[in-house]
Amino acid sequence: MKWRVSRRSRLIDALREKVSSSYSARSLKRTLESNGCRVNGRIERFASVQLERGDWVELALLETGGREALSYPVLYEDQELLVLNKPAGAVCTDAAFQKALKQRVYLAHRLDKDTTGVLLFGKNPAVAKELQELFERREMEKEYLAVVDGVPKARSGEIKSRFVKKGNFEGQTIWGSNPAGIGLYAETRWELESSLGGDAALLRCFPQTGRTHQIRVHLAEMGHPILIDRQYASRFRSSIVAARPLLHASRLQFSWRGKSQVFMSELPADFNVTI
Asked: Number of folded domains in the chain?
């Protein structure tokens, strides 16, 4: 739904006028919180923002539902390893997962709060440390899927840069590449999987290093930020609406105790709706 504002008003009042009475104030609030509203092409999450005559408003009412308990599907488990299919919304700390799973597990790596997919644990601190060292030595083959804004002209590419802290966004650090070439080395390879309607694309990403927000930063800097990653982009060409940045850890492969281990996670429901 898209319309031009005819008179000055608060966003919430304009939304209430436009949408059916079947949508409650709570539903509208959840839609705003889930990135479902844009004003003049920019995502707007504040109901009290003032609209001016002539502004364009886009609204996509999301079926956000209530807050449900997170589930943690097990992809693999033995005496040393645990591999989960991480849900969006889960914070990556040992304490959080130990509480949720009711067992002692130790993270071998981390995914952002809203990133889904393959997450690896050691069953004890020593195993977790061994796994972490494999990541540090770049002996882990990682693959992610990302839905990005716009379609890259090339079929594949490689991004190398040095990361530094650039600022803060809602309490989180914003990272970015330093043109001076000073900072933490970050390298990402990517391939175009498919075009999604001409204004978005599905990419396969292969991070060669493990910097915080690495894929998100590199894709945003190449002009194709992840949908909907408000931390690294304020405007999006695509009309696709998502309640989180659409980034998914789809595959992890490494050698363990002399055997090759491969763990894969299918796309979550919000990806399937998108593509």
From this structure: 2
